[in-house]
Design the sequence.
């Protein structure tokens, strides 16, 4: 992909983004929030969303630098700010979490200083997490890449964006399965047909209060509470969403004594204990537990 663009712009720092360690940069963009980033040689990350293609790297001074196609800089610069959530003061938000009374949360925050929540396109986030059921991150990325290559519009030579939901609605389920989707193809096909028949539904859902938005998302085929919370957290900036996956269940059992609790009970505990920024706390807990897991004990997402 890097050779297919007409030319890359010069590297430049991202204003407003505090310096990040290499580990935290990798965890932020390639740790399970998004599935279209790929590590290149020299620790450069190549990523895509909507019509944007961006490279990120850690500069010599520790600041994150970015580059895109030379003819796309003006369009991509504001989109990158939105994508990285630079309209929010994440250091201040993180400091407001209850780490002073929660020793485990304090350890998680100390391990990933500067970790933030991405703000991805809502529809693309839904597609990514519909692909995520029972799959590891590397497999989800493969599915997304195949969907883009085979069914998405070409935005530069050999560079494709993800198909829109309207485009997905016209694709036979068998062709979706050929993108390694397995049983997820049925859910994506059914959701695509519903969204094609209800224009504006996703845009309306993204603007609703958290509870109402989650209820609407859970009405879609294949969308349970965990997927809905992921979509709202990573695609709509709803920091009160608290996705409960295998890693959070494990964290709550081992670190908070919630053995035997259901995912719904754990989600309620998370929103109550961590407060209106529970989703931000969740990402620190998730990242810490995944890094410190017993080898091979659980899937990645």
Sequence:
């Amino acid at each position: 992909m890097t050779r297919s663009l007409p030319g890359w712009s010069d590297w430049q720092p991202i204003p407003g983004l505090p310096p990040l360690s290499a580990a935290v940069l990798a965890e932020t963009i390639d740790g399970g929030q998004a599935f279209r980033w790929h590590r290149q040689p020299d620790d450069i990350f190549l990523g895509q969303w909507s019509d944007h293609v961006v490279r990120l790297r850690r500069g010599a001074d520790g600041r994150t630098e970015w580059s895109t196609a030379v003819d796309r800089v003006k369009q991509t610069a504001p989109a990158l700010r939105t994508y990285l959530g630079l309209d929010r003061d994440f250091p201040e938000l993180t400091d407001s979490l209850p780490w002073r009374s929660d020793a485990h949360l304090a350890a998680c925050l100390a391990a990933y200083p500067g970790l933030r929540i991405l703000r991805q396109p809502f529809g693309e986030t839904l597609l990514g997490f519909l692909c995520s059921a029972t799959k590891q991150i590397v497999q989800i990325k493969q599915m997304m890449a195949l969907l883009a290559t085979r069914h998405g519009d070409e935005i530069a030579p050999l560079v494709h964006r993800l198909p829109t939901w309207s485009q997905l609605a016209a694709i036979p389920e068998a062709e979706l399965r050929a993108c390694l989707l397995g049983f997820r193809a049925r859910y994506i096909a059914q959701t695509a047909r519903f969204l094609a028949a209800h224009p504006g539904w996703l845009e309306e859902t993204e603007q609703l209060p958290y509870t109402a938005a989650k209820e609407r998302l859970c009405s879609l085929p294949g969308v349970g509470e965990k997927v809905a919370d992921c979509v709202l957290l990573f695609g709509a900036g709803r920091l009160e969403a608290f996705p409960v996956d295998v890693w959070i269940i494990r964290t709550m059992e081992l670190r908070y004594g919630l053995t035997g609790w259901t995912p719904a009970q754990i989600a309620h505990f998370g929103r109550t204990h961590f407060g209106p920024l529970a989703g931000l706390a969740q990402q620190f807990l998730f990242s810490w537990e995944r890094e410190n897991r017993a080898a091979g004990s659980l899937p990645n997402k």
